Amino acid sequence: MKSRLTALFASLLLLASMIGGCTTLPHVPDKRAPAASVPTVTGLNGELKPSVAREMLEERWTHASRDLKALATLEEAATGVPLIAGNNVSLLFDGPQTMNAMMDAVRGAKETINLETYIFDQDEVGMRFANLLIERQRAGVRVNVMYDSVGTIGVPPEFFERMRAAGITLLAFNPINPAKARGKWAINNRDHRKLLVVDGKVAFTGGINISEDYANSSLFRSRRRPPASAEVGWRDTHIRIEGPAVAALQWSFIDNWVNQVAGDLPEANYFPKLKPVGDKMLRVLATRPNTGFEIYKAFMVAIQEAKKSIHITSAYFVPDKQIIEALGAAAKRGVDVQLILPSRTDHGIVADAGRATYDRLLGSGVRIFELQVAVLHAKTAVIDGAWSTVGSANIDRRSFLHNYELNVIVIDPAFGREMEAAFTEDLRNSNEVTLANWRKRPVTERFKEWAAQLLGYWL
C-alpha cells in the first residue's frame, strides 16, 4: 500500500507543471444499430462469413435479449474490435484464488511466460512469484516481465536485478528518469494492465497486481464476521481465459513491449495454433493513452443500450460528465442502475472526488452502495445480465485518457449470470447511500469532495 501512495504522490508532483492542455474524452452518440446487422466474429481461421456468424450468434444467444446482437454491432462500430469465438472463461475472486491459479499455470509452463503488471512488490507474494519465474527460466522456459516504473517506485532495484541475472528479460515501463527512456518520455502515461500469458495458450487478466496486499482475501461468499480494520482484506476480480482470444492478449503484450522501443523479445513460440475450447465470445480491448478510447466507448454504448440493469463495481470511480448523464438517463428510463463503490480505499482523495458525483447520480435515480468489509479494487460491470467486462480500467479519466489499460468484454448470458451472482454477494456486504442521508453529511466532507474533484482529470 505504501508503494501505491508514494507512486500517487510522485505522479501528482510531476504533473503539477503539466496542467495546461487537457485531452478530452470523445462524444459517444446514442444511436441504434440496423436490425439486420451482424457483428464481426473471428474464429480459428479468421473472420467468419456473415451467414456463419449469424447462425453462431443465434445458437449462443438463444435465450438472451433480442437486442444483444444490436449491442454487439454498435460496440464493434464504436471500438473497431471484432468478437472472438470459441473461448473458455473462468471467474477468479480475490488475490489468493487468483495467485494460486496463476502460479499453477506458471509451474506448468513449457515454452513461454509473459507477465505485464502495474505493481510487482518485493514482499512475500512477490518473492514467491519471482522465485517461480526464476525456476521456470532456469528450466528452459522463456520468461519476459514488463512492470510499470511508477507502480514499482518503492521496490529495491536488487529485486529485479536478481530476476535479470537468472536470464529473465525485464522491461521497466516508462522510466521515471527521462535519461533511461529509450523512446518518448511520458511520465504521466502508466502501464496499468495486469496480464499473464503462459505458453500462448492460457491468459489471466483483471485487477490483481503481484502484491501481498491481495494475500488477505475479502469475505466474498464467506460466513465469517467482518474482521478488524487492520486485518481487512481486498476485494478484486480476475479471469482465466483459454481459446483463440489468448492470441489477442498475447499480441497486446508484445505490441506494448515493442512500442517501448525495448527491442525485440527473445525468440520463442509466442503464437501456437489455438483451437476452440468453449462457447464464450470475447472482445479484447487493449487501450493506450489518447488514441481510440475503446474501453470508454464500449462502456458508453453498453450503458446507452441497457434495457433492464446496469450493475457496476468500481474501485476508483471518478466519472466524466458524459458517463454521469448516461447513467442518470438509464435510471430515468427505468433501468435498474446500481453501483458498488468503496467505503474503504487505499486512495482517499480519489474516493472523495468520486463522492462529489453522488448527489447528481442519486438525484437521477441511480442507487449507490459502499462495500464495507474490504478494500475494493475490482473493476467489473454486468449489463442486462449478458454483457460483462473484467479488466484493469477504472471508471475515471486516468484510465480512459492517461493509462495503458486492458479489459475483456464477454457477451454471454451464462457468464453474465455468474457476474450477477458475484454482484449480489457484494451487495450483501455493502451499505446503501440514500439521497436524504447523503445530504446530511458534514460541511467538512463536502469541502474535501469539492477540493478532490478539482484534481479529477489527473487522479
Which short descriptors sum up this protein?
globular, 459 residues, 2 domains, single chain, Endonuclease, Chain A, disordered N terminus, alpha/beta, 15 helices, 18-stranded mixed β-sheet
Assembly category: single chain
Query: Which structural class should the secondary elements be placed in?
Result: alpha/beta
Report the mean per-residue pLDDT as an integer: 90
State the shape.
globular
What portion of residues is helical? 25-40%
Strand content: 15-25%
Number of helices: 15
End-to-end separation in angstroms reads 17 Å
How would you describe the overall organization of this protein?
The chain has two domains: 221 residues, Endonuclease Chain A (Endonuclease, Chain A, 2-Layer Sandwich); 170 residues, 2-Layer Sandwich (Endonuclease, Chain A). 36% of the residues lie in helices and 24% in strands. The protein is built from 15 helices and 20 strands. Helix 3 runs antiparallel to helix 8 and helix 10 packs across helix 15. It starts with a helix and ends in a 6-residue tail after the last helix. The N terminus is likely disordered.
